[in-house]
Amino acid sequence: MLGQLIETLTSNPVYLAGAVVLALIIVIGLVKKLVKLAVFVIALFVLFIGYLVYTGQEVPTNLDDIKKSVQEGVIDPGKEMLKEKAEEAKEKAAEKVKEEVDKAVDEVIN
Asked: Angle at which helices 2-11 and 13-55 pack, to 10 degrees?
């Protein structure tokens, strides 16, 4: 099937031109999305640096310092919050199970 498609494209210049135009549109679309992603990442980085300057923290000068700063400022607090929420969920689930067991026992007894 692929061989037949290639043969059709190479034998008819109109189909080949259409395929080239379609490929160019796809490539240009991908490049535009990558540029948007790069601009977004750069904007986030600038906001992060602005936040550090605003809060009076030291601005990292190399990649290891940036990793350490992000780890301490974002990831570690996120992990702590996640642990707290998981503990709360576990307690609520245990409480709900206890209530359901008590209700089932009361139904069996009565």
From this structure: 110
